[in-house]
Amino acid sequence: MSGHSKWAKIKRQKGANDARKGAVFTKLAREIQVSAREGGPDPDANARLRLAIQKARAEEMPAENIKRAIDRASGAAAEQLEEITYEGYGPGGTAILVQAMTDNRNRTVSEIRAAFNRGGGSLGESGCVAWIFESRGVIVVPVEKAPAEDIALFAIDAGAEDVKEEAGFVEITTEPSAFEGVRSALAAKNLTIDHAEVSMLPKTTVELDDERSEQAIRLVDRLDALDDVQHVYSNVELGEAVPLKVGAS
Question: Could you say which of 3.30.70.980, 3.75.10.10, 3.40.50.1820, 3.90.800.10 is the CATH number of the domain covering 82-131+204-247?
Answer without folding.
Answer: 3.30.70.980
